[in-house]
# Entry
Amino acid sequence: MRTFAVAVLVATMVSCFAREAMHIPIYSMVKPENKLDSLLQQAKFYSEMNSGPEYLKNFQDAEYYGPITIGTPGQPFNVIFDTGSSNLWIPSIHCPRSDVACQRHNKYNNASSSTYRQNGKPFVIRYGSGNVEGYLSQDVVTIDFSSICLVVVVVVVVVVVVVVVVVYSSIVAVVVVVIVVVLILVVVVVVLVVAAVAVVVILVVVVVVVVAVAVVVILVVVVVVVVVVVVVVVVVVVAVARVAGISVVNQTFGEAIKESKDFEQTPPDGLLGMGFPEISEDYVPTVFGNMVRQKLVPEPVFSFYLNREVKASSGGVLTLGGTDPSHYTGDFTYVKVTRKGYWQFRMDSVQLQGEAFTLCKGGCPAIADTGTSLIVGPQREITELNRKLGGTPTPQGLYIIPCGQVSSLPDVVFNLNGKPFPLSGSQYTLKVQTGANGDYTVCLIGFMGIQFPPTMEPLWILGDVFLGAYYSVYDWGQARVGFATSRN
# Structure
């Protein structure tokens, strides 16, 4: 048993310091059963959207977020990990008191970070649900502070030091005992042979002094070792915090000093975009792009498992540098990125299983977006689909259906690179509470239409309704996106 425990500790230590794919738990900010108001707001935004691609992002869409730290020492923030944008921004301590959205969230203080570098260039990021304004800064950004690694390392260090203290103290104690015994024997011999009182007194005094000195030595050794323990633990904790997480140095990000009121009620503090730098404000290098350049991940890929279970404690897992086989089955089907910026690719078609009904005929562009709740598509096609499914329209453009009919809904099949990816009725509908007291349940069909502006090619946005059913991997190195069936 003792050998097994040691082996587990050693294996954990090795995994903490090895450069392997890292699995970061992420959380869902709003559960499907009580977010009807939010979804209606999204529908209103999309129905009114009449501008270019930068306005495709509605911040209130995003559900999945996780922890990062910025600076040295690290200042903690919760950010949305969003494949549909490319900038990192967080609130700044320099935002005015009148900015309610900023004041309600964690704020970055550049004066408290020893690794902060001033940039100062202004930035503005426009979302459909509001704007964020501020200035650019540089600092260390760390993702995944591994508490398990810290605990294991601290335990190992403390155990080693305790063993050293015990061994050291034991050796000193043995030496003291030997000296005392020898001195006592000398005293006895002197008493028996010489019988001189003065000599005996001197020897007794010597014994007492030696014992006192030995005790002091032991105490000093213990104190010194304890101080060393504290220093070593602090150093190791800092080192493991760096190694167990992924620390990107000299990362440029936005310090937001002005946020519109739309951000007041969002639990996360900011957003970490995981798209390509082509859509990054001011073409700022992205966090993941810098991870690849600084060789912080074993492979230039990241992947998402999004948990759509209502009662689940975890919202999912973001894996940096690889995939997490425990969350998917089968092989990945890959589609090439056709236009860098978003994770955009060519979708073959969308069909209703068992029926002669096809959308996206001849192929159409689509993007995989973890920051969008529903599946979004061209207004005309989505309206056709929702009507075909028997949905009843709401004033905001969403469609609802009696929950008792969900089990009889046909699969909606998304064809990607020659392979079908079906969604069942239970996967593309969401139960939501409505009524004055939230005592009435309706089922919302998870397809939302956009009237695209003439300057923009119509496309489909495969949001969390799709990505919750299919594990997604984003291959930065080969510019492709892969999908496999999630283990939900």
The CA atoms of residues 142 and 210 lie 54 Å apart. Residues 325-486 form a domain with the Cathepsin D, subunit A; domain 1 fold (CATH 2.40.70.10).
